[in-house]
Amino acid sequence: MSYTSDLADSAIETKEQLVSNLRRVISDAEDLLAATAGQTDSRVNELRARARENLNVAREKLADADAAVRARARQAATATDEYVHDNPWSSIGAAAALGILIGVLLGRR
């Protein structure tokens, strides 16, 4: 459970960093839109409206992706945990075989 939990936590941390970076980009774009609010050129207004719409779509998709990745990470951790509990000897054998393989590979160096 610990290993799969660590992997799921690592994936979630990486995803959270990505989400944080995207939120900063969205915030900066909103600041830029606010800074150009005083400009009345029709082309600038059109671009600002389109940018605002794209930011709203990006925010919605980011929230959906965040929820989906978290759910998949939890499902993977749960499935792995259940498999290990249902098949403890197979899991021990696989871990031992992997350990032997790594030992042989490192012994060749």
UniProtKB/TrEMBL annotation:
Lipid metabolism recorded as keyword: no
InterPro entries for this protein: DUF883_C, DUF883_N, YqjD/ElaB
Domain of life: Bacteria
Spans through the membrane: 89-107
Localization of this protein: Cell inner membrane
A single GO cellular-component term on record: plasma membrane
Coiled-coil boundaries: 12-68
MF term (GO), any: ribosome binding
Membrane protein topology class: Single-pass membrane protein
Assigned keywords, A-Z: Cell inner membrane, Cell membrane, Coiled coil, Membrane, Transmembrane, Transmembrane helix
Keyword Ribosomal protein attributed: no
DUF883 domain mapped to chain residues: 16-65, 80-109
UniProt record similarity statement: Belongs to the ElaB/YgaM/YqjD family.
Stated name of the protein: DUF883 domain-containing protein
